[in-house]
Amino acid sequence: MFKIIWHRFKKNPLSVLGLIIIVFFAMIAILASVISPYEPTQINVYNVLSPPSSEHLFGTDELGRDVLSRMIWGARISLMVGFIAVGIAITIGIIVGSISGYYGGKIDAVLMRFVDMMLAFPTFFLILAVIAIVEPSISTIMIVIGLTGWMDVARLVRAEFLTLKERDFVMAAKAIGASNLRVMFRHIMPNALSPVFVAATFGIAGAILVESGLSFLGLGVQPPDPSWGNILTSGKDNIIVAWWLSLFPGLAILITVLSYNLVGEGLRDAIDPRLWTSEK
Amino acid sequence: MGSLLIVDSIKKYFPIKGGFRKPLKLLKAVDGVSFEVKGNSVLSIVGESGCGKSTVAKLILRLLPLTEGRIFFKGMDISSAASEDIKKFRRSVQIVFQDPFASLNPRMKIMDILAEPFKIHNLLPNKEIKDRLSGLLKRVGLSADVLKRYPHEFSGGQRQRICIARALTVSPELIVADELLSALDVSIQAQILNLLLDIKKESAISIVFISHDLNVVHYLSDEVAVMYLGRIVEMAKTEDLFQSPKHPYTELLLSSAPKIKVKEDKKIRSWGDKKSSTSQPLNFSTFRLISDVPSPIDIPTGCPFHPRCPKRFDICDKVVPELKDIGGRLASCHLH
Fold first, then answer.
1. In Å, how far are B4, B48, B326, B331 from B323, measured between CA atoms?
2. For residue A178, what is the nearest residue in chain B, using CA coordinates?
């Protein structure tokens, strides 16, 4: 099963490249404390806004902090926000979607109208509104992004449940006396998750973008904690004198988001159910 | 023997939604079906595709809610039973589906699929499950090493054996076989059929056999019910039904069943001709053009079979014929 998906995935070179980049960034994030050349918050007032050099590969910012080190630690925060926010979104989405799809009827109608309502809000402004009320911090950012990003997953899971619950193996499980919970989680769920993985991959890209956007606006990760978004903020203030402050974090965001999207696309093609049937 | 299962005028209507308004029409999949299954016997339900056979199967298993009517299993009304009684009922009645490729969970090992009933019903301590399963697999003609594998590693016939093994885990008294053979090769069909008969002989299990293969039905069943558009139009002992069908629809079915007959002039129709009780042989060929099944959404007025019936007369499109007792058997036709 996973072998077949991997086999299909391999055929798309761009997706494989994306995966390599993702793994590379993930390694950087995990090994941040080992590989970062300086402390990310170490201020050096004698060496502000110095251009890239052998000492500071990506230059320094307006407080003399090493941009490369801040980006390495920022990778950890940005990726963590992406993963945990999507984790929250998927959990909510799976619960809502499976209840909605399995029970159907009025429960389904109520839950799906709620989903429609949530989708009708412009997500970014909803997040801004929430951040305006609660104190912005890494954990609130993750929770807020998660709470506003579960609707697509809920719809996907619901659609899978709607078709799977009519399948003979589900009927057989019911006939054998399996409880609703057992049917939902042991029989239907494992067969419903493939599109969720795809959605999650795209979701991580989205969450990283939202986090960067919020941090750029000063509503996300708060200095002195580094994040790609808030490095860009200082880049914006000094864009004429210090191009390196904007270029490198900008590129990092671009490449990461692009990689996740490429992987998502490759995954989507690899687990397309229409291609599945021929190989069973 | 007494009745194991009594199905009492069950109905199942599916609403067809029109836009976001209230349901516009009803699809009458099952419209007042009654029958009995005695202990250690085989009742076959035959009919064309879409006549409601499989819906009846799902209703018996309580996999779909009834619109109307009642179903008794050993005297217990399962349509209104409490959940503990239903759990007991699940141990007594099992189903095997048509498509062996759809009826096993592709993400579960055979071990997990077959062990599940024991865990749900706490039938055996975990240690003993494996031994029991080996025995069970032997009974259906498989070896114990299938347990470690996934469903996609098996052929249709093997999967159907696994499905039968799953149905047997709880030692049921009644097995509903919903088109059990129709997805299998003919040679495999014979094997599975013999397996079913062996099981029936060994453990005195009753079978509700749903099929459109009349040869198999003839071979296997004690009683046959013929369904047409959600209703039973004729029900009789197997020999009676095949020897002298009373309902024109049964005759149509019997005459259209393919049957290999060597060296017996050019007649293809077999049963309908032999001792046909009707006055003259029917000529169905002239009716072929209109011989599509009417939609169960717009069931014809009067006798639902009248648009296709070669023997219809004035009353047929006005009055719905009752299912009447005619000499120890049932048929719903104005001719009788």
1. 22, 19, 9, 5
2. B120
Which residues, in sequence order, are bridge partners of residue B96? B177
What was the ipTM of the complex prediction?
0.81
CB contact, 8 Å: B61 with chain A? Answer: yes
Which residue of chain B is at minimal alpha-carbon distance from A191?
Answer: B107
What percent of chain A has pLDDT above 70? Answer: 96
Residues A205-252 pLDDT 10s: 999 999 999 889 888 888 888 889 988 888 888 888 888 888 999 999
CB distance B102–A167 less than 8 Å?
Answer: yes
B107 with A191: Cβ contact below 8 A: yes
Can you tell me the distance from the alpha carbon of B228 to that of B233, in angstroms, rounded to the nearest whole number? 6
- The structural domains of chain A, ordered by start, are 11-33+66-279 (1.10.3720.10)
Of the candidates B90, B98, B106, the beta carbon closest to that of A176 is on B90
Q: Does B101 touch chain A (CB under 8 A)?
A: yes
Which domains does chain B carry? 3-221 (3.40.50.300), 228-331 (no CATH)
Tell me the whole-structure pTM to 2 decimals: 0.81
Q: pLDDT band at A278, cuts 50/70/90?
A: very low
Query: Using CA atoms, how far apart are residues A68 and A249, in angstroms rounded to an integer?
Result: 9
